[in-house]
Amino acid sequence: MLKTYLYVPDQLNQEINALAQIQKISKAEVIRTAIKKGITFIKRQAASSASLLLQIGKIGEKYQPHGPKDLSAKMDNYLWRKS
C-alpha cells in the first residue's frame, strides 16, 4: 500500500473524524472508502455519458436528419442569430 499525504479543509477533517468514531474504523479507512466510492461514481458517469452519445448517434443513423451544409462553419449564427 502506498503512503500519501492529503490536505483537507478543517470541516472535512471533522466529518472524517466523526465517521471514523461512529463506525469504529480508522480515518484512513474512511478516506479510502470515500475515494473508492467517488472513483466508482465518476466512472459510471463517464460510461453513461458515452452510452448517451452512442444512442444519439443511432437516432441520427435511423432518421438521417438533414440540416444546413454550412452548419459547422456558421454554428453561432444558427444558434444565437448572430450575423
Commentary on this structure:
This protein is mainly α and 83 residues long. The chain has one domain (10-80). The protein is 69% helix and 0% strand. It is built from 3 helices and no strands. Helix 1 crosses helix 2 (27-63).
Question: What is the ordering of alpha helices and beta strands?
Answer: HHH
Helix content: 55-70%
The radius of gyration is 24 Å
* Secondary-structure-derived class: mainly alpha
State the distance separating the first and last CA atoms.
59 Å
Count the DSSP helices. 3
**Number of strand elements:** 0
Low-confidence stretches: none
User: Major sheet, described briefly?
Assistant: none
Question: Mean pLDDT, rounded to whole units?
Answer: 91
Number of domains: 1
Strand content: under 5%
Global morphology: elongated
Outline:
It is built from three helices and no strands. It is elongated and about 65 Å long.
Task: Reconstruct the topology from this structure.
Layout: H1 10-23, H2 27-63, H3 75-80
Helix pairs in contact: 1-2
